[in-house]
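Comment on the following before class.
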Amino acid sequence: MSVKHKEVFGINESLAKEILDVALSTGGDFAEVFIENTRNDSIEMRLDKISKVNISKVTGAALRIIKGNTEVNCSLTAYSKEELLVAAKTLADSFSGTKHKEVEPFVEKNVELVVHPLRVRGNNLNEEIDLLSKANKGAKDYSDEVVQVVSTIAKKEQEIFVFASDSTWQTDYRCNNRIATQVVGNDGTSMQPGFGSFGRNQGMEMYDGFDAYAFGKNVAKDTIEMLHADEMQGGEMPVVIHNGFGGVILHEACVHGLEATSVAKGMSVFCGKIGTKVASDIVNAVDDGTNLNAWGSINVDDEGTPSKCNVLIENGILKTYLVDKRNSRKMNHPITGSSRRESYKYQTTSRMTNTYFLNGKSTFEEIIQNTKYGLFAKEMGGGSVNPATGEFNFAVNVAYMIEDGKITKPVKGATLVGSGKDVLLRIDMIGNNLSCGYGMCGSESGSIPTIVGQPTIRVSHMTVGGKGGNN
């Protein structure tokens, strides 16, 4: 028995089928329409004054047709019936042939909601101003050497609707909410920047119990410690990478190479490696879009596929790639619920959600105590990676030396140089203190919210660069 689906964004089943029939009229194998309504809000406080308030809306649609390995796309800033039908006909005219695929009856999958924000609206502005004020005060109160503090709360509410010729009929609602604080320290001779953030896929309830003053103070503390730190002396040494944003190494140097965006083109060091050993035996890693209200979580991806927990590495063995519908056809690999896009203006493709190493058996204290000499990378920064080779170069924002099993002096200017495949195999200790960091990941389909995370890990040896000695 067929089930009649409710109208979404003014589009009912009959119109949806009409649009897709036109799209498939010249021999396309698959046709899809993605529609979104998005609102972006942000408020910025510089020291003790509101310096910027932005509100913007994004509304539009994207259509695509796939025939064989060829894909054609277009985007529209409006999505009336007439505009969608004209766009479908224009795209279909990219091919010559006769219709051989019928639109399958639409099926809306039952999805267990992992993203359900509560207090999205209401008297939020006063709450946000109070949070920003406390974060800035916490940073400024820490030291007279803090000369600049800027805090921002940014929120993106996105409603999407996807319907496609393979029976897809799905909606989703996301609310990415983040507070970030930037600090500049100055001792009269040099300056040092610092940064911290906290984000969830929630409304204002995410700040219940959140200590904004302590958050700002901690950002300032790390900044001022690095301001007075010695320059790092480079060399080959063990490196202990702390939990949280330390997971950027996994994200950048490994899992970008597991996205079908790279693998399907043969441009990844991990091509053809499923079922083989790519990491030490103690390494387990996942990309899990189903963590409740997590920053990178989604109920369904931007192709309407329900999100899931994808086990990437199990006991050192590579288990899967992250694959979208188009690349699934090329690679003969199952779809993993990993197709994401910043907005309708970008073509969707395989991307990460919440990516992290799982807990190991060591405590943080044991890892430090068992390291006679090395670098403790407390907070990772940005860097660059070549997905074809896995080679990377990352800055370490906050770092300390480890000497005789103890964390000692702070050092600045440290960089980590190496390759993802080597680092994975050299991990010899993993902590039991998993935590996550919150970032925006840029790639072919735009900038999207992702979590990077890990417990504290130790890499037996890495090349550490620094201005204080050999690089």
